[in-house]
Inverse folding.
């Protein structure tokens, strides 16, 4: 049995790859298939993140554990695809090359796909990857209407005259 997974590059244009991959493969195998199908070398740092229906980023599965000490981060090579993508509609977020931040939406579109040729294959391709990664826009929360936050009152209790003594 195999999964049919849709991978969509997070850009304005439609850039999609549908990948069929055996349920016995791991996330590192999926990482290599995604990078090669989009024309990347696969040599940059990358991570998968579990996601919900709203594409909220959850637990990270990095290519390599770069943290100091042993904090129990599970790497891609240690996670079978069948452990994180069990049902149609299950989702992951995939980020490749943290300097350029190529981000992708990964969505299971079939859990009982018949692989014809190899343990993985590209079954559909649409669009070409842009030469440059899109700029990621981070939006901050608007605190102007927040009753708990008042810029002018935050420093009222601070004694600026005796600041140097501190």
């Amino acid at each position: 049995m195999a999964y049919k997974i849709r991978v969509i590059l997070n850009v304005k244009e439609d850039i999609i790859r549908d990948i069929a991959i055996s349920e016995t493969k791991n996330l590192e195998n999926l990482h290599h298939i995604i990078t090669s199908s989009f024309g990347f070398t696969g040599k940059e740092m990358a991570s998968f993140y579990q996601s919900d229906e709203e594409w909220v980023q959850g637990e990270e599965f990095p290519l390599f554990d770069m943290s100091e000490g042993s904090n129990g981060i599970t790497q891609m090579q240690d996670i079978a695809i069948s452990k994180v993508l069990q049902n149609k509609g299950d989702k992951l977020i995939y980020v490749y090359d943290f300097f350029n931040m190529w981000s992708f939406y990964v969505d299971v579109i079939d859990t009982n796909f018949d692989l014809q040729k190899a343990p993985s294959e590209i079954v559909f391709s649409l669009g070409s990857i842009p030469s440059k990664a899109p700029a990621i826009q981070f939006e901050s929360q608007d605190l102007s209407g927040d009753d708990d936050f008042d810029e002018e009152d935050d420093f009222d209790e601070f004694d600026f005259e005796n600041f140097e003594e501190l």
Helices lie at 27-37, 81-84.
